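can u do me a favor
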């Protein structure tokens, strides 16, 4: 194994081991307040976003993204996980390449993009978040969903969304 690959593998291993010792982002909606009317498979994935294990949080976000529109109830907890980028984890099997390094925040962002337009209103609201890293992730997700770029200007996003909310994605 080359020196660079050895160093990278060691770094990932240390991050995974250290993840259990570090604090992590918790969704602001308490776990007990997750509506019981949500389908059980989606509810289980949402509950996993509250895990102290970064791998479980990242996997839950990934799985929610794969669920598509059924994951709409997970929008707020996924947004809450956009700040959870301090834990590099390795769990996604990439064909012929082994495992990919990711974070719960990166997987939450991907899931929100996959959910798409139903996530836009809550994302625009989150542009007032106190953490710049979260705001930056929100902007990135909004750009990918809408194809627009208003930076972190919440007013411009709201104005554009109000005019374009009802249009089909092809006509935005």
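np, heres the sequence
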């Amino acid at each position: 194994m080359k020196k660079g690959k050895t160093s990278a593998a060691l770094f990932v291993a240390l991050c995974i081991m250290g993840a259990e010792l570090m604090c992590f982002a918790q969704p602001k909606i308490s776990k007990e307040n997750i509506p019981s009317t949500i389908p059980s498979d989606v509810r289980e994935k949402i509950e996993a976003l509250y895990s102290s294990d970064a791998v479980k949080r990242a996997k839950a976000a990934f799985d929610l993204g794969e669920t598509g529109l059924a994951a709409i109830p997970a929008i707020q907890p996924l947004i809450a996980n956009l700040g959870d980028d301090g834990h590099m984890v390795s769990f996604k099997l990439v064909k012929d390449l082994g495992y990919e390094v990711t974070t719960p925040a990166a997987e939450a962002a991907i899931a929100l993009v996959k959910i798409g337009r139903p996530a836009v209103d809550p994302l625009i609201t989150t542009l007032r978040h106190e953490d710049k890293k979260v705001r930056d992730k929100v902007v990135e997700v909004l750009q990918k969903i809408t194809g627009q770029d208003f930076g972190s200007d919440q007013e411009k996003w709201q104005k554009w969304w109000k005019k374009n909310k009802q249009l089909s994605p092809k006509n935005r």
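The longest strand covers residues 89-94. hope that helps!!
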